[in-house]
Structures are given as structure tokens and as C-alpha cells.
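Data follows
____________
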Amino acid sequence: MSTAAQTDSIAWIGIGKMGLPIAGRLAEAGKRVAAFDTSAERLAMARQSGLCPAASAAEAVAGQAVVFTSLPDDVVLRSAVLGPQGLLRGMAAGSVLIETSTVSPEISAELAEAARARQVDYLRAPVSGNAAIAHTGALTCFVSGPKSAFERVSPLLATFTRAQTYLGEAEQARYAKLAVNLMIAVTAGMMAESLALGRKGGISWRDMLQVLEESAVASPMVKYKTPPLATRNFESTFSCRQMAKDLDLILGAGHAVGVPLQLAAQLRESYGSLIAQGEGETDFIATVAQLERLSGLGEPEL
């Protein structure tokens, strides 16, 4: 059987805000994608996106060579894959399980052990980016697991990511995703403090944003967030609640391997405060508005 034939049979489990547009990219590339989600509304949206809704996860994965998952957290992932009706029970030896979510290295290692027992190749392939760009194919992903499996499915990954970085055989991809998300969280915190300090020093809102954009600190992340900040748009692309969940994973990973993460701990408290104030679903850059309030600043003049 050719490599193409081995990877043309696909299931996608979890068609939420990230899963649906990513799976849609595979359908647009001519792949038949059996899809399942616990939400009837998401299944209807899947059909509209060219996917083939299944009545159950077991039906979706039956006979498929490649199964993707995009699930919200460790608890849901463990239940979906390792539970009494778990995905692995329906996957054939030699098939590939590709997990794309941000989850802990611990649950990922559990999946790896269970997959190995079923002779299923398990790839950790967390994606980096957000739902706003998922439909464009501009996401990136970090991959670890059996290299032969990565090479077999890399054309599929390339349909929805512009770059795929293979990092090793074990949980390296999980640590890579957590490390990147830590940098994103810390950048949001730094931008908040820098913007508040500039405003307190008499710099106008637009001028301060331009200072950040044109200086040595103008990372892609800074440039990505300055346009919505210019219009005070805090509509969520990745929410404060999601960032808090990821910071919990980051802190857990740091504790497990003996890395002190003081900045992560501080930012986790900031996001906890935002959630307590009813801003859990606001964009994670709401740290900016939070620092303004703490600094006695009102809305800037646009």
C-alpha cells in the first residue's frame, strides 16, 4: 500500500474552534475526514465544512489509518482515548494517533504507553496559533513520537501548518508548546506594564504603541497585538481562561522537572484575578486593561 493510501483514511475527534477549521483544511485538500464531536451543533458545522459527521467516536475511527484529536484538556482527552469506549480500542495496529491539543506531558505519556500496547503509532503534534488563522494554514506545529510515523503523515500536517518541527521520540513537543505559551503569557504581561508606564510618563496611546512596534522589542507577538490594542479591541482570539489553564500546565511541568518558573507563577495570578473579575472570556491581552486599572488610568484617547 502506498504512503498516500495509508494516510487518506482520516478521522478527526473534537471539532471545536481549532479542530473544525483544521479538519476543514484536510477536507479542502481532497481528504475524506470522518468527524465526531459531542456537540450536535458542531457536527452540523462539520458537515457544512465538507467533513463526514459520525454518530460516535467509535464509528469515526473504525478502519481509519490516521486519527487526529483536538480536545480541551487532560480530563477530556483521557476519557476520549483511554476510557471504556476509548478511541484506542477501535484503532488498528499500524494506524497513527495524532494529538494536537495543549495538554500535560503526564497525560501524553499515558497515551503513549497505551498506544504502544495497541501497536498504534502515537504522535504529539500540538499546534501553535489561534482559531482566527487556523483556516489559513498558517499555524505551526511541534511534533514528537516515532519518526517514521511523522514522515508518513507530514504531508497531512502540511495541509494546515506552514512549519512542522520534529523534536524527538518522547514528550519534547509537549514541552515546546508549553515553553512557547509561557513566552506569549510573559509578553502579554510585559506589554501591560510597558504601556501603562509610557502612558503615566505622558506618552499618548498611539505613540506608545508605535514605540513598541518600532523598537528592539518588536517581536512578532508584539506586532500581532498592537493593531487590536490600537482600537481597544479585546475580543478573544485566545481567552484569559485558556491562558490560565495553560499556565497551570506550564507550572506543573516546571515543578515536575525542577525548573523554577517565577514569571509563570506571577502571570497565573494575574489571569486568576482577571477571571475573578468576570473577564475569563476576554482576550489574554486584557492584562493591558488590568494594569491600567491598577495604575489609576482610564481609557486612553484614541
About this structure: The longest strand covers residues 161-168. Residues 172-200 form the longest helix (29 residues). The beta strands are 9-13, 32-36, 52-53, 66-69, 96-99, 121-124, 127-128, 139-144, 161-168.
